[in-house]
Amino acid sequence: MTLEEVVGCNMTDKRMESVGQALEELLVAAQRQDCLTVGVYESAKLMNVDPDSVVLCLLATDEEDEDDIALQIHFTLIQAFCCDNDINILRVSGMRRLEQVLGEPSTADSNANEAKDLHCILVTNPHIDSLKCQALKEVGNYCEESRCKNQWVPYLALQER
């Protein structure tokens, strides 16, 4: 391994960690402001009605979801729609971390609160002053940088804490 590869790899890890932290901050802030749409079907409905309000689309999976053909078809269609409508899109893994960040139960709890489908999450237009604007910019820049490298749907692994 060359020095450039070691330094480049280290910089990439730090960048991914930084973007992951920014994404978590963005999700928490957007949730507080009711700027999140959670669920594949709910997201598709919103994008059909008001695609201009969507600023970021997250597609979340873990290894056990890789064999879910229906989910993969939904993802392909959502990705195509996002690309056609200039919506930043990000694939993430780490469903358990996503549940923690959003305060969602992983299964139905004793109060009959059913677990939400976190496979697709949309962040809609925030109130620019009160939402963590820097976090949205950082995630958006990461998506844009990835597109410049011909990686149209960047990937990010959320780390357990």
Automatic annotation (TrEMBL):
Residues 22-117 form the Ribosomal protein eL8/eL30/eS12/Gadd45 domain. InterPro entries: GADD45, Ribosomal_eL30-like_sf, Ribosomal_eL8/eL30/eS12/Gad45. Pfam families: Ribosomal_L7Ae. GO terms for cellular component: cytoplasm; nucleus. One of its GO terms (biological process) is regulation of cell cycle. Belongs to the GADD45 family. This is Ribosomal protein eL8/eL30/eS12/Gadd45 domain-containing protein. It comes from Albula glossodonta (roundjaw bonefish).
